[in-house]
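Q: Got a minute? One more chain.
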Amino acid sequence: MRRSARHWLAFQVWRIKFAVNKRLGPVAAWLLQTLRRTDRRRAAEIGAYFARGIGPWTPEQKTGRANLAAAFPEKSRTEITAILRGVWDNLGRVAAEFPHIDRMRTRQAGETDGYDITYDDLTAQRFETLRGSERPILIFAAHLANWELPALVAAQHGLETTVLYRPPNIGAIKDAILDIRARSMGNLMPTSFDAPLRLANILANGGRVAMLVDQHFGHGIDVNFFGRRCKVNPLIAKLARQFDCPVHGVRIVRLADRGRFLAELTDPIIEHRAADGRLDIGGTMQEITARVEAWIREYPDQWLWLHRRWR
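A: Always. Here it is, folded:
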């Protein structure tokens, strides 16, 4: 195909996407506002019901099954199907819970009921240590249970944190989601070419930075994940080396009633040092990846197996 023809085709594709996004954006934004008027738990049950019914008919089902078969070769097809059913259930709940995210409550000291997110005594102690520290701190999380909640927990307990996030491509949806997040999740920084520099400035001033670390990154470094090589973004390890600051992990577990959650905060991960004494980037990213893998093995139906993690 000649260059001019390729340019023309690319332009037509862009026009179609622009037209679709222009129409879908307001609809999606209206839907978010409509869902905010519903009961969260009821909406989550409906979202899970539809996701369990529709999900297995999508191409992502095939991706998820292949990922699970490779990660858990000892599991039968029936067991993998059951895990996938839980994955779709969780995803449907996450989608339905998002419009209510700023209304969800983390347990405060002394409370015994009326909250959506709880934690154990060890996590409470670690959290207080973080909140009282004057050092820069890095925190990682993964797409487990409802991955929007770690930022919510930090904000509700007074731990000022800057969260790196990937904004949606559709403008109206992006604005509606940002409005909900901004009311409840502290400082939000969209991914961009200058995000690493901006995060470095925050850490240089003793700030705290959080990010998700379990997505494919084409220009990243290799780590071992469920016995297979995959690419990870080494940004968090590079920042840890630059500022010699601790790296903690946080995960959310969806509890048995499916509507409440447990938040867990780790101690600083084991540091891997190179011969010159500086933090080793590869070893640190492998340590972080191993921690994420251990989390997933404990609750495999709560991780997002539907994306192409291995490429």
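A: The longest helix spans residues 3-35.
Q: Perfect, thanks.
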